[in-house]
Write a structure and sequence with these properties.
With 146 residues, the protein is of the alpha/beta class. Helices cover 38% and strands 18% of the residues. It has helices at residues 20-23, 28-41, 54-66, 84-93, 131-144, and strands at residues 3-8, 45-50, 71-75, 97-101, 123-126. Strand 3 (71-75), helix 4 (84-93) and strand 4 (97-101) form a beta-alpha-beta unit. Helix 3 runs parallel beside helix 4. Bound molecules: 1,3,4-trihydroxy-5-OXO-cyclohexanecarboxylic acid.
């Protein structure tokens, strides 16, 4: 069975309460539940992990390498624009990944338009609020079963 792991970075645990005009009104739990149900209906194994710390994210990505995860969906949140270490962890495990954002980062502040991930991602999905994760999963499924 194809194994997919979803990683969410800092402050995404506050979705729903945090700047709902930018990130939407759904909680992370609601978004992940919908994603898990979609994955289950498609016969793929999917689980998710959220952390507010950079080291925690690096450790979890290394663990995904040990666990034989096939694909990663990652929203590095604020670390998108700063983290060489998370980028290096993804390069080290060599797991193909989709970069996801709830907001349209390319049309926000200049510092958010810089991402340390998009050049090494399979692709980037940004701006569809919680639906961005479903679109990322669909894109991975399309690659598995063209
Ligand atoms: C975000 C965009 C980032 O710039 C921001 O720091 C986040 C969330 C998004 O999903 O739109 O925390 O990754």
């Amino acid at each position: 069975m194809v194994k997919i792991r979803v990683f969410n970075g800092p402050n995404l645990n506050l979705l729903g309460q945090r700047e709902p005009g930018v990130y939407g009104q759904s909680s992370l739990q609601d978004i992940m539940q919908e994603l898990e149900a979609f994955a289950e209906s498609c016969g793929v194994e999917l689980n998710h992990f959220q952390t507010n710390s950079e080291g925690g994210m690096v450790d979890a990505i290394q663990k995904a390498g040990e666990d034989g995860v096939d694909y990663i969906i990652i929203n590095p949140a604020g670390y998108t624009h700063t983290s060489v270490s998370i980028r290096d962890a993804l390069l080290a495990v060599e797991i193909p990944f989709v970069e996801v954002h709830l907001s349209a980062v390319s049309s926000r502040e200049p510092f958010r338009q810089v991402t340390y991930f998009s050049d090494i991602a399979i692709g980037v999905i940004s701006g569809f609020r919680g639906e961005s994760y479903l679109l990322a999963l669909q894109a991975i499924l399309n690659r598995i079963e063209p």
